[in-house]
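PT: before anyone asks, these are the final sequences, not the draft ones from last week. 867 residues across everything. Please model them as a single complex and drop the result in this thread when it's through.
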Amino acid sequence: MSELSLWERLKTADLVTGEQPEAGDTRDQNLWYVRVLQGFAGWLAAIFMLAFLGFGVAGLFDHGQALIVMGVVINFSTYLFFKTKPESDFFEQMVLAFSLTGQLLFTFGLLILSDFRDHEWLFVVGLYQAVLARVIDHYVHRFLCTWFAVIAAFWGFEWLVNTGLGSALVAAGFVWIWLNKTGWENERDLYEPMGYGLALSIVTLNVQSIVWFHELFHRYNDSISWVYQHAPLISALLNSAVLLYFVYRMAQEQGIDLTSTTGKWLLLAAIVLLFSAMPVVGLSSALLVLLVGFARQKIVLMVMGALALLGFVSWFYYSLARTLLVKSLILIAIGVVLTIGYALLRHVFEKSGQAKEKAESNTVDSASSGRIQKIAASITLALALIGVNHAIVEKENTLKTGKSVFLELAPVDPRSIMQGDFMRLRFDMANKISANEAVKEDRTKSLDGYAVVDVDEKGVGTFNAIYDNQSLTDDQVLMQFRKRNGRIQFATNAFFFQEGDAKLFDAAKFGEFKVAANGELLLKAMYDQDLKLLGENRLD
Amino acid sequence: MSEIYSWIKQGLVKSADTQRALEVAGERGDADGWFHFIKFLLITLGLLSLAFGVVFFFAYNWNDLGRFYKFLILQVLLVAVFGLYFLKAKQTIVSQALLLAGVIVLGALLALFGQTYQTGADPWQLFATWALLISPLVLFARSEALWLFWALLINTALTLYLQINHSLFGWLFSSRYLPWLYLLLNGLMLLLMEWLATAKSPRILALVHRWAAQVLGLVVLYALTVIGMELIWGNHQSQFFNIVLYMVSMPGFFMVYRYFKPDLLLLTAWALALIIFIMAFLAETLFQHFDAGGMLLMAMTLIGLTTVAVTWIKKTHEQLKQEQANE
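LR: through. Structure below.
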């Protein structure tokens, strides 16, 4: 897209007239990955500088005040340097690294002064970073400072992160900057890096939540302030307000009157989206990054938004606030609502929709592609269904008709291996196999093998030998074992029972395995020393 | 791209037309674009949300629901998703979303089997089976996302496998040769992705965008960097192959992405990989006799290297623009 063709296109669309003006002073359009390189390398160099100062200047790190003063002096010089808009790449990179060192010095100084206690000093660091971001006129520097400012400010207050209030606040700032402040040349270098910094913050906040959550539980169980109690509500309201503002601005730009039909549908969609995003922290902020990215046609933002959404899903999986069942239902509900939304959208705007569909199917390659894709999909589906069902039938068969072999439990205190509603088992035969020469050699090496097991008339199995293609007598069966991490396993050695039945299985002495002809086995039930059934393994 | 803003500021575009002008310049989404995008978002997020909801549901392992019912539900869902796909195969957005959802549900089915019948099978088998089953789908679906997902599955299966076994197909690998496997695997996939994205690949397989190849390119660079680290920090006895590999691959990578298939993103990543290698080499020699001055040297070298890289990238950017203009 050269300048000439843009002007031509604008002319064709009747938006401009006359000759294209001379190209003004277009600032160097640095590509985003180059900036990433500069930022990353600058930061690494700053750490080396810090190490140099720390090891080279004796006693420097004992005095917090000295560090703070040094840091501020360095940053002030940075400010002066970048105010002059230098042309040299080398000095630019060097001063960037120095400035980061200065910030590290400042941070360490505060850390020392606060005697390593509390987290409030981090808030000061955040504030300092915010000032630097505003004042120092360098794109990468601004980006990094904005990002660090958010991290520092929220690190001191994990509850901000966990209740979603943090990402709601950042999202609000993010939307405001991108919708109102970017694009205009002079302000672009001020606001755009901040915008990207806030976007990255939202992504990392989503990912960070997983880690911080555990700390939260230990810290704030007793002292619950008003803000903390209401934070989820506040953040939900804030998110809604931001989202509505976004929709309003978009409607404005596209010239949609909110009282018209289209406008009303838009509002409805926004409200539906709101309700979808409410129960889940971080979903709406991630979504906002994606939407704003599209609104301003910035692919980097859109990718960040997509990554934030993925990060959110894994956070959601691990969050302890609700059971997996509730979470799954929430996700399903959201999915249903969104899908219905899609169907409604297509139906309501059918006329324009149809035109788009035609355009779509024309861009998709000709009919044969659809057919081959369908065949490929059918193959996958068929293989999957056949494969899985065949395996299920096989396993069920083994359970019903496989040879029953009772293996004695190794004498271990059973209470020590009960975990909730399942029991870890150790079989005596495992010890015998471990002791066997062929298996003993390499402790860590994994091994798959078969044991030849003598089965007596009661069905109890005893170890005979490791299978080495010898022929078996009628009383012998093959049982598969695996050696993993130095331990012998028969299937998984895990026995599941109904909650509350733990006492019943204190008397367990034998485990019943159903063995298939090829040596594969499944654990079926536990028996006591008289070979009376205690209970079956819960497979459901 | 910033010209449009200065033109608007100069008053060359009437204020009523600003929005339209920005749309023409590609700085704002237009109405059609928005419509398309919202549709895409709704159906993709909707189906993915449903798929993940199903996964969460079966991860919950509800004891009150019998195992046959669980298998039945999942298989019905799987058939339903694929059935819908057959109906809607012509509509790109919906069909791709359905495929992605179907692949996830398939994984859930395999996981359910493992969870139910506690056979003690190794974890890598789940991922390997999953990857194998969806291969025909991935091959013909012409979706970059699916290809990357498939690559992820295979890499995961390989990693899990290597945790248990130190050999592959009978070749014994000690841990220092493991990066070779990843390099080989991802290198082959990179070649495949690049080929699929060219105009010469068969239409039924072809990919429209190169970003899958770019992601794999980054993975390959990462594997090469690990080999480089091994070269520097590892046991100095049998480094011959590592040296050859690194000395051949790095320049090779550069040649490919500078002259054959110019890609500035991958070139920048390559520069970073090279910088890391040089810095590691420097660090290794410096740490023999550690002192503060060494740290300063490291810092200045890094700054110098970065400057060289940035200047070179900018120059290459200009050169590539020239070359494109001349075509």
